[in-house]
Structure formats: C-alpha cells, structure tokens
Amino acid sequence: MNDLSADWPAPAKINRFLHITGRRPDGYHTLQTLFQFAEPIDWLDFTVTADGVIRREGGMPGLAPTADLAVRAAGVLQSRARVAAGVRIHIRKGIPAGGGLGGGSSDAATTLVALNVLWGCGLASATLEELGLELGADVPVFVRGQSVWAEGIGEQLTPMDADRPWLVVLDPGVSVTTGAVFNDPKLTRHTERITMSRFNALALRNDCEATVRRLHPPVAAAIDALSAYGPTRLTGTGGCLFAWFGDRALAERAKKGVSAYGTAWVSRASNRSPLLGRLKTS
Ligand SMILES: C[C@@](CO)(OP(=O)(O)O)[C@H](O)COP(=O)(O)OP(=O)(O)OC[C@H]1O[C@@H](n2ccc(N)nc2=O)[C@H](O)[C@@H]1O
Ligand SMILES: Nc1ncnc2c1ncn2[C@@H]1O[C@H](COP(=O)(O)OP(=O)(O)O)[C@@H](O)[C@H]1O
C-alpha cells in the first residue's frame, strides 16, 4: 500500500445543541443544530484494485460488508463517476456505533472524499455532498469537513466557526435507536427557531435528552455523573454525551471521575475535520 491510500481519518461529530423545531408531512423532524468534530476517530485505508469489486476488511463486528456505509458510499461513487476500478477498504473503528457520534456517516464521507482522489473521479465537493445525502442526513457535514449550523432535516448547512472547548466524550455503551426517540409521543417537537447569532452552548439544550433519559437509565446516570464536572449534553440522539471545559487538565480530571460510567475520550472541539488536512497531503 502506498502513502496516498493509507490513514484517512473519519472523526466523530458532536451536536453542541439540538433543537427540534417541527415535523414535516412525511413524518421527518426539522432540526437546528451546530456540528463540530472531535475524537474518537475511525481510520480507513484504501487499496485500489483493477477488478471493479468493492471489498471491506475490519469495520464494525457483526456488520455485513453490504450494509457498511463505507462500502455503500464506494458503490454510489463508482456508479456515478463510471469507475471501472475496484477497492479494498480497511476500516479501523474507534467510534462506537449507534451512539450519536456519526461513525457510519463519517466513514461514508471519508470514503467518498478519498476515492474521489484515488479513483481520479474529479467530482466537486458539492457533488460529493449530494451523493452523501443519499446515504444519511449527516454525511454531507463530514464531506464538507467544516463546522456548520444545520437546519431542515440536516441538509441546509451554513458554515459557522464556534468556540473550541476541551471535551470529554463519554460512551455509556448504550445503543439508542434514532427512530424510537423521534417516535416518542412525549418528545419536545416545537422549539422556537433561533438565529445563529443566538448560539450559546450553556443556554441551549438537546431536545432528545428527556426521552433518552427515560428510555435508557444508564445514559441518565452518565449524564448526571459527568454534569458534576462540567456542562453536559447528549450528542445527536445519544447514547453518547459530552461535557466541555476551559482547559485540558479539567477535562482529564472529569474523564477519570466518570470512568465507571463508560469509555471516555479527551480532545478539543474542532471546526475543521482532520479529513481536510489529509486531503491536502494526498
Ligand atoms: C438527529 C441526528 C443528528 O445528527 O441524529 P444522530 O443520528 O446523529 O443520532 C441525525 O440527523 C439523524 O439522521 P439519520 O442518522 O440520517 O437518521 P436515521 O437513522 O435515518 O433516522 C431513523 C428514523 O428517525 C426518524 N427521523 C430521523 C431524522 C429526522 N430529522 N427526523 C426523524 O423523524 C425517522 O422516522 C427515520 O426513519
Ligand atoms: N462503517 C460503519 N460504522 C458504523 N456503523 C455503520 C457503518 N456502516 C453502517 N453502519 C450502521 O449505521 C448505524 C448507525 O451508526 P452511526 O453512524 O455510528 O450512529 P449514529 O447515527 O447514532 O451516530 C449502525 O448501528 C450500523 O448498523
């Protein structure tokens, strides 16, 4: 494998806040949220092959290659750009699945961006975002690789650089089904829309939190434990959560303090995905 094809990062995302502002006639909920990037990170290696077949190695245990969003992303790009070559995708998972950290979406985006280069497709980033949206609401954010204010069901993106606190991301090991949260009759669905200038992490919340707390007591316990150290929010529809701090030492202290509640990572919230840096060196 040459250097060009190895070590493409697929970072996690966090939702600094998440408001549900309404419901469309098709049942999908409209949101307002601010996405930033953080650790943990998945790493992908690509080996271009001549036979046109898309293969996957590693990845999420128990997930069939045909269901893997990275494999599906490669397939979408291959047919859109009429690529004759194939690829072997090796995935080293760092991001827990189904936790609201967007690992599957991030793997899909990294695959689109990397193979666009390695297969020589030459598609514009906006086109890759469009292809990504077919795979999941969060994929375009990862393709763009820049922190964004998102509206609609996540397809209306406006770049927004936010503050960059130190984070503890905590995975209580609970997989939350997004559909179950959005179907909860008690979910807060009509939060008033706000303008970007009103972003204030302390004052804003994640509207899914009350539902997730009720459906998953271990997540509620983890939120309570981490809240003792710093302001804490759920990311996406959970079950992962994060707290933010003014410096790294405080974050490391909190990480130690919540070790009984799950796996935790310390990193700085980022407005740029490491994928963009990797793209520059390709
Ligand atoms: C809400 C976010 C924020 O990042 O949650 P996380 O997935 O990150 O936790 C995402 O936009 C999630 O989008 P996505 O990941 O594509 O959602 P899916 O799993 O496909 O949605 C499963 C089901 O949830 C409901 N759903 C989903 C998104 C939405 N805006 N409104 C909905 O009502 C629909 O019933 C849908 O069939
Ligand atoms: N490469 C992948 N990594 C993780 N999950 C994947 C991948 N491809 C498909 N999936 C599926 O997507 C689901 C949601 O994964 P993920 O994006 O990590 O969750 P969330 O949207 O809650 O952050 C997983 O439960 C899994 O079935």
Automatic annotation (TrEMBL):
<keyword id="KW-0414">Isoprene biosynthesis</keyword>
<feature type="active site">
    <location>
        <position position="13"/>
    </location>
</feature>
<keyword id="KW-0808">Transferase</keyword>
<keyword id="KW-0067">ATP-binding</keyword>
<dbReference type="Pfam" id="PF00288">
    <property type="entry name" value="GHMP_kinases_N"/>
</dbReference>
<dbReference type="InterPro" id="IPR020568">
    <property type="entry name" value="Ribosomal_Su5_D2-typ_SF"/>
</dbReference>
<dbReference type="InterPro" id="IPR036554">
    <property type="entry name" value="GHMP_kinase_C_sf"/>
</dbReference>
<dbReference type="InterPro" id="IPR014721">
    <property type="entry name" value="Ribsml_uS5_D2-typ_fold_subgr"/>
</dbReference>
<comment type="pathway">
    <text>Isoprenoid biosynthesis; isopentenyl diphosphate biosynthesis via DXP pathway; isopentenyl diphosphate from 1-deoxy-D-xylulose 5-phosphate: step 3/6.</text>
</comment>
<protein>
    <recommendedName>
        <fullName>4-diphosphocytidyl-2-C-methyl-D-erythritol kinase</fullName>
        <ecNumber>2.7.1.148</ecNumber>
    </recommendedName>
</protein>
<feature type="binding site">
    <location>
        <begin position="96"/>
        <end position="106"/>
    </location>
    <ligand>
        <name>ATP</name>
    </ligand>
</feature>
<dbReference type="InterPro" id="IPR004424">
    <property type="entry name" value="IspE"/>
</dbReference>
<dbReference type="InterPro" id="IPR013750">
    <property type="entry name" value="GHMP_kinase_C_dom"/>
</dbReference>
<comment type="function">
    <text>Catalyzes the phosphorylation of the position 2 hydroxy group of 4-diphosphocytidyl-2C-methyl-D-erythritol.</text>
</comment>
<dbReference type="Pfam" id="PF08544">
    <property type="entry name" value="GHMP_kinases_C"/>
</dbReference>
<feature type="active site">
    <location>
        <position position="138"/>
    </location>
</feature>
<dbReference type="InterPro" id="IPR006204">
    <property type="entry name" value="GHMP_kinase_N_dom"/>
</dbReference>
<dbReference type="GO" id="GO:0016114">
    <property type="term" value="P:terpenoid biosynthetic process"/>
</dbReference>
<dbReference type="GO" id="GO:0019288">
    <property type="term" value="P:isopentenyl diphosphate biosynthetic process, methylerythritol 4-phosphate pathway"/>
</dbReference>
<keyword id="KW-0547">Nucleotide-binding</keyword>
<comment type="similarity">
    <text>Belongs to the GHMP kinase family. IspE subfamily.</text>
</comment>
<dbReference type="GO" id="GO:0005524">
    <property type="term" value="F:ATP binding"/>
</dbReference>
<dbReference type="GO" id="GO:0050515">
    <property type="term" value="F:4-(cytidine 5'-diphospho)-2-C-methyl-D-erythritol kinase activity"/>
</dbReference>
<feature type="domain" description="GHMP kinase N-terminal">
    <location>
        <begin position="69"/>
        <end position="145"/>
    </location>
</feature>
<feature type="domain" description="GHMP kinase C-terminal">
    <location>
        <begin position="197"/>
        <end position="262"/>
    </location>
</feature>
<keyword id="KW-0418">Kinase</keyword>
